[in-house]
Amino acid sequence: MKNITFIIIILISLSQIQAQTLTLEEAMNKAVQHNYDLKNQALNIALSENDAAKTRTRRQPTVNANGDFRYNPILQTSVIPGDAFGQQNTEDQRIKFGTNFNVLFSIEGNYKILDPVYQTDIDINQAEANVQSATLRKNTAQVKLDAATAYYEILLQQTQVELANNRLRRAQDLLEVSKIRQELGAALPVDVQKSELDVQNAQALLTQAQNVLERARLNLARQMGIAYENSSKLQDNLLNINTDTVQIPIVNAAVIDLKPEILEAQQQLKINELQLQRENKLYLPSLSLYGNLSAQHLSNNLAVWDKWFPFAYLGAQVSVPLYDGGLKNRNKEGFQLQTQINQNNLSRLREELTYELQSATIDLKNAISQLQDAAQNLQNARAIQNIDQTRYQEGALLFADFRNTEFSLRESETNFLAASQNYLLAQLRWLNANGTL
């Protein structure tokens, strides 16, 4: 029974370890979810949508309720000429119109039935929202690129630690063999000293690799928004890359027009064109309807329960701009110049993105070739090292020759790591340039 319980505990522990591994896709998704700039950009999209909603309220009538209380302790005096009614030699008459108390309650409404710039403003709001969405896509791709770069840096350093452990193990094995051969008189004391130095160097290299790995893990944890202590082990391994299945990328220039940078620039161009249209429509007639319903109390004793007098009116108002001192032409010229700037920026951006894709494709092809060569060289170096290790243990190979074999293996490992890193980064750049990251 105790054995069964022990096995269950082991299986649970193994499942937890497996669950704590982190894939590249998970790392990028967590970085996107945590990034505060992307959160703010999502809020900018919401703000753009709110601006559009505010513009649409212009198609709704406005209704206001007003109240006014006025006390006139001294009424204004009006003078009527004595001959105002056709009577000569009559004195002027002084008359005070009004009451001491004046209370007014009113409801007034206004509805703009003809707004020449309304639809253009709606189109501008939509274009601005599209700009924010394209910016979010562009920034999201950059966050993914940064997270993937940090992820691959950990893979590189993990492999560096693994290789450093292998070097240390081989150096320790060589030291033991050298000591045995010295006791047998088949090796010189200096050979043992060289082996001890190799062990010390391998240990120093391992310590350095572990420190760099710790820093790389801290960088990825920061981007994902988690504590370093909670960071998981990566699921991938550089040494498991199957170089035979690596495929040469296929370039499709049509993807350039689908990239968020192009969509962002196109929407900026559209906004300027719409602003130019809006400037023309601002000088078209606008028509509004208005109305008022009021009740007024007039008395000298504030008897608000009596003496209320209602009145109402309806009207229409037409507004036609006639002269603005040439402001319209200046604004139109400004928008036209800005449109030309946007067109130039769009053309430049297409050229840059096309070059970036072509350049990334060339770099990736070269990286694949270098990786395949480095992998083959590493495989050959390992095979030679295994053979020479056996020959050295059997006394058929000199210590100096075996150290040369060991140095060749170390150089092959270093070259493979460099080729792996170059390939992974080239792959990231190509995916980003292709818009598929």
Could you characterize what this model shows?
- The chain is of the alpha+beta class and 437 residues long.
- It has one domain: Outer membrane efflux proteins (OEP), CATH 1.20.1600.10.
- It has 8 helices and 6 strands.
- It has helices spanning 2-19, 24-34, 36-56, 118-183, 189-224, 260-281, 327-393, 399-434; strands at residues 62-71, 77-80, 93-96, 101-114, 286-299, 308-319.
- The chain has a 4-stranded antiparallel beta sheet with strand order 1-4-5-6, with no helix packed on it.
- Strand 5 (286-299) and strand 6 (308-319) form a beta hairpin.
- The protein is elongated, with a radius of gyration of 42 Å.
- The two termini are 51 Å apart.
- The relative contact order is 0.12.
Question: What is the count of structural domains?
Answer: 1
Going by helix content, strand content and strand pairing, the class is alpha+beta
What is the CATH class name? Answer: Mainly Alpha
**Architecture (CATH level 2) name:** Up-down Bundle
Largest sheet: 4 strands, antiparallel
Q: Provide the spatial order of strands within the biggest beta sheet.
A: 1-4-5-6
Kindly report the name of the CATH homologous superfamily: Outer membrane efflux proteins (OEP)
Intertermini distance: 51 Å
Q: What number is the mean pLDDT?
A: 86
Proportion of helical residues: 55-70%
Number of strands: 6
Shape: elongated
- CATH fold-level topology: Outer membrane efflux proteins (OEP)
Poorly predicted residue ranges: 1-19
Query: What's the helix count?
Result: 8
- The amount of beta strand, in percent, is 5-15%
Order of helices and strands: HHHEEEEHHHEEHH
